[in-house]
DNA sequence: CTCTTTGATGTCAGGCACTGACATCACGAC
DNA sequence: GTCGTGATGTCAGTGCCTGACATCAAAGAG
């Protein structure tokens, strides 16, 4: 395990957040990030598939948490309810990190390439959610539609949570967004 | 206008489709595409912001068509109905191009970078749709939610249309997906 | 205590994506 | 015929990312 300075990955993530906030994503090279983290550029690319991935290291944890919550939901919950339970669980991971989420969102909002990557992660979350619903016996296209709807609710709720001055709970934001979706006609 | 061989852009689009189908996206360089189209690599990048964009040249037309249909929908249509009218109009543009759509989808499905770009275009479509709804007097978050739901319906319907052996109308596929969404509840 | 193994890291060379600066050329306007 | 205009060609350069190989700290075997 750690024979050198420990947590090289964490150091790179923090260095990247700092540099992206200071000069912007495009004005920061992979070598810059590595240097501030005390490693070489080559090591950076051993930990992250590309320069953008350094901002999405926790997306797999989010996905896993959502899937587990969906599988743990009451068996008679309708598909959308189960999927939304997954989104609430995922949101819970961010509960204590409002300030960090705001900074990260600002960085992503400032760069189309990073928005692309975020959309890919959300699509992966939707796909994992749909798989979880299918393993609960939900057939397509209902599984796909419920999963994608839940992720949309997560996006809308998260956006409001991040833009709020006095941060409410993210759970409230997600629940409100879910209610607004159901109120559509 | 055209003082050289006309339709350089169209030639590049066709050359790219051929090469991506033959060897795959990553195994094709921008220089390869340019060469087959009879231009230089530098000219390729004057027409397309990056290598992926060559597959998404028609996305702005799709977006414009959807917006116009939404604005033309009956004023008393509920938000989701109006948004879906936009998706049906957009789908209409593909009606006569099933084979082309199948080939293009296969290329995109084979490469994560292209999927990212497609997600970005769909997000732009959703944002334009939401804007159109807002200009009809729909407030947020209903506008965002209805727009994103409509785009999801478009995606699901399109996917079924593309994977169908004996292609039905794409309008039927979209309408069916919309019905499945409404049946969620 | 020494040797070996293991895995993370460093070093180096190179391909491809993309860009800025400048030259060139075809065609239309006058 | 000259001149302007816009698309194209040419060239040099930066940054992203990868493969191949060397190195080194620490853990385990004897």
Automatic annotation (TrEMBL), chains A, B:
GO terms for molecular function: DNA-binding transcription factor activity; transcription cis-regulatory region binding. Residues 29-48 bind DNA. InterPro entries: DNA-bd_HTH_TetR-type_CS, Homeodomain-like_sf, HTH-type_TetR-like_transc_reg, HTH_TetR. Keywords: DNA-binding, Transcription, Transcription regulation. It holds the Pfam family TetR_N. It comes from the Bacteria. Residues 6-66 form the HTH tetR-type domain. Transmembrane segments: none annotated. Gene3D superfamilies: Tetracycline Repressor, domain 2 (1.10.357.10). PANTHER family: HTH-TYPE TRANSCRIPTIONAL REGULATOR RUTR (PTHR30055), MYCOFACTOCIN BIOSYNTHESIS TRANSCRIPTIONAL REGULATOR MFTR-RELATED (PTHR30055:SF238). This is TetR/AcrR family transcriptional regulator. The lineage of its organism: Bacteria, Bacillati, Actinomycetota, Actinomycetes, Jiangellales.
